[in-house]
Structure formats: C-alpha cells, structure tokens
Design goal:
single chain, about 120 residues, alpha/beta, five-stranded parallel beta sheet, about 20% helix, about 70% strand
Length: about 120
C-alpha cells in the first residue's frame, strides 16, 4: 500500500530511487532510497539508508543507518550509528556500539547530576 510516499502494512514493499517516512511490511526492499522508520520481518537495503530499522533479519549493502534493531544483521561496506542485534556479520563501521553507548549514557547522567548539585549550592 502506498500513500504520498508512505508505505504501510504491506506483505511486500519495494522502493527504488525513492523514499518514505514510515514503512511497515513483512519483506521490505529498498534500493537507492531511504526511509525514516522501517519495521519488517526481513529488511534489505542496497545503496540506501534509514534512521531507524527494526527487523528479524536485516541486510544492508553499501548503505547506512541510524539505530538498527535486529535478531540477525548482515552488512557489506556500510556505516551505522548504533546496532542492537543478536548476531552481526560482514563489513560494517559502527559509530557507537552498546558498550560505548552505555558509557556515554553514564557520563551524561553523571554530568547532569553534577550540574544539579552545583545549582543547589549556588
């Protein structure tokens, strides 16, 4: 189903040279395109990307992504911000892994607590 660039609830969603805000489907394939949010059982992205992807099985070739949630993720020459997956394979550059994200969260939390304590003293 397609409505003004948005894909919703289809069994098979194919996008080529285009984009969408939100995509929900069983099998999602994007080639040279992108989306803000993708949710599907099997998601494949080739020379494209998405801000947030949630999938059982995810494959990204020569693309990128923001936050990726998957049971199994396979990459080929791709760059992503953060991946949360049971299994990750292939050639991928992850900007923030789970450990670095946890440390960053702790540091931001400690800084906020420190600022709050300083405000109370002043």
């Amino acid at each position: 189903m397609t409505q003004n660039g948005n894909q919703d609830g289809a069994a098979q969603v194919n996008i080529k040279d285009d984009g969408a805000a939100v995509i929900k489907g069983e099998n999602v394939s994007i080639r040279e395109g992108g989306a803000a949010l993708i949710s599907g059982q099997s998601v494949s992205v080739h020379e494209g990307g998405a801000l947030l992807i949630a999938a059982e099985k995810l494959s990204i070739r020569e693309g990128g992504g923001g936050i990726l949630l998957a049971n199994h993720a396979e990459f080929n020459d791709s760059t992503i911000l953060l991946a949360l997956a049971d299994r990750i394979g292939g050639n991928v550059k992850v900007m923030v892994d789970v450990r670095a994200g946890a440390v960053f969260g702790l540091l931001v939390g400690a800084a906020l607590v420190g600022l709050k304590l300083l405000r109370r003293r002043g």
